[in-house]
Design a protein that fits this description.
Bound molecules: ligand G3I
Number of domains: 2
CATH architecture of the largest domain: Alpha-Beta Barrel
Oligomer: single chain
Radius of gyration: 20 Å
Helix content: 25-40%
Length: 335
């Protein structure tokens, strides 16, 4: 890894984290991680399909590795995620072969599974995971009530959210509890997430923070909208985090290349600068900022929906600093 370049964590006024798997803790990846970052989020290791593939059978191998690694290297840890509609095994939403429905018996069954799951996973890492994404992507701004029609919501209404937060708080009272979603920088989604957080907090549901994923694109220039979002939620007095930042460079233009043109990577760097100008200005409302991956050799964006050229992170495939890094660490050195 490059020596002689500043650590990102020394250049920002909040904790900065990266999403990781086991591979990012090994060798040079581990050196890069501990040099530049204050915290980690497991990209997949603590999701339900990884932790409870069959009812009551818990598997924590990668989660344990990551939590032990973080603890041993002085990194904070963001747990991700307790209730989501994706990467959740089919059994969770079934009784035998039958899909659960909105009957009182099915609802009670699903909520008891959720309660068991949250107790087991949060309980295992009590005191070692400082922050949990409790519910993920529950908002759908195109529904009249703003709620995604996931099996969670169809069967339980808002109660899965209430249960997940209540049980997480009971199990580890010191952990910061987050409601996490994407596109909250866009006006209609922002409003729907805001209305939900406001309603839950008014009821006494312990939503400590709102997570803005910030999966953005170089074409969007989203900085001004991000600032509006942070200011809006600040009015609720709720803590905020940026939880999954990456800056996609995928466009029709880039799709015709076999390597990303330098000018595109430079533009990505300027987008990072614009975004971090806002995040620095709003730092009093933000307890952490996490990028969704360590380096471009491992990112969901180069395999979604098919393998393609889309390096969205601060370091390249060779772990070298990109303009995206300079846009954050020292914008004066942008190309
Ligand atoms: O574990 C298997 C492995 O055994 C197999 O060989 C390999 C071959 O495809 O697949 C592996 O599973 C993949 C897993 O990532 C681990 O790499 C899954 O197919 C793939 O679907 C999964 O993608 C993850 C995605 O969530 C799925 O929803 C991404 O890594 C992860 O970065 C992404 O993260 C989400 C956040 O949790 C929520 N917000 C959006 C964000 C980006 O989609």
């Amino acid at each position: 890894i490059e020596s002689g370049i500043p650590a990102v964590k020394d250049k920002v006024p909040f904790d900065i984290g990266a999403a990781v798997a086991r591979a990012q803790t090994l060798g040079e990846h581990g050196e890069l991680l501990t040099k530049h970052f204050d915290s980690v989020t497991p990209g997949n290791a603590l999701k339900w399909d990884a932790t409870e593939p069959r009812e009551g059978e818990f598997t924590f191998a990668e989660g344990d590795h990551l939590v032990d690694y973080a603890t041993g290297h002085g990194l904070k840890f963001r747990g991700h995620t307790l209730a989501w509609h994706s990467q959740t095994p089919a059994w969770v939403f079934k009784d035998g072969d039958r899909d659960l429905t909105a009957t009182p018996a099915d609802k009670a069954l699903l909520l008891s599974r959720l309660e068991n799951h949250v107790r087991a996973v949060v309980g295992r890492y009590k005191g070692r995971i400082q922050t949990w994404d409790v519910v993920n992507e529950v908002v759908d701004e195109n529904q009249p009530d703003g709620m995604r029609r996931s099996p969670w919501f169809v069967v339980t209404g808002y109660d899965f959210i209430r249960t997940a937060f209540r049980v997480a708080r009971e199990t580890d009272p010191a952990a910061k509890l987050v409601l996490n979603d994407y596109n909250s920088e866009l006006p209609r989604k922002r409003k729907a997430v805001f209305d939900l957080v406001k309603k839950l907090r008014a009821e006494g549901v312990p939503v400590d923070a709102v997570g803005h994923q910030l999966h953005v694109n170089i074409e969007q220039a989203p900085a001004a909208e991000i600032e509006k979002t942070i200011e809006l939620f600040a009015g609720l007095g709720v803590d905020q985090q940026v939880t999954e930042l990456d800056v996609s460079v995928y466009t029709d233009f880039v799709s015709s290349y076999t390597t990303v043109p330098a000018g595109v990577l430079a533009l990505q760097g300027y987008r990072c600068k614009e975004i971090f100008d806002v995040l620095r200005r709003q730092a009093s409302h933000l307890s952490s900022v996490t990028v969704w991956g360590l380096a471009d050799d491992a990112t969901w964006l180069s395999s979604f929906p098919i393998t393609r050229l889309n390096p969205p992170l601060l370091f390249d495939d060779e772990l070298q600093a990109k303009p995206a890094y300079w846009g954050i660490a020292d914008p004066a050195r942008l190309p």
